[in-house]
Amino acid sequence: MIASRALLLGRLLQRVASSPATRATVRNQLVRHGHDVAYRMNGPKPDMMVRVGAQVAGGMMWWWVLWHLFHEYEHITGEFDYPDPTLWTNAELGIPADDE
Fold it and tell me: Is the pLDDT of residue 46 over 60?
């Protein structure tokens, strides 16, 4: 099956390549460089001010996050002390007495 498909493709390419109309079209094709193409490649590099602005904005964001983590850590750890589970009684834990 692959051989038959390759044969058909070869005949098609031979017919297209031998046609005088297609040769003239390929030679006279215009190449326009009006914009940057980013398909499967990197886009244009941003300006220096954009890169510096992004670094400054990222620095300010991390400063804000780390400042509040240091000064308002209760948002993460909670406001109240965690109770000591060794001080809980069996009744509070719902454990029945040994004599039952």
Answer: yes
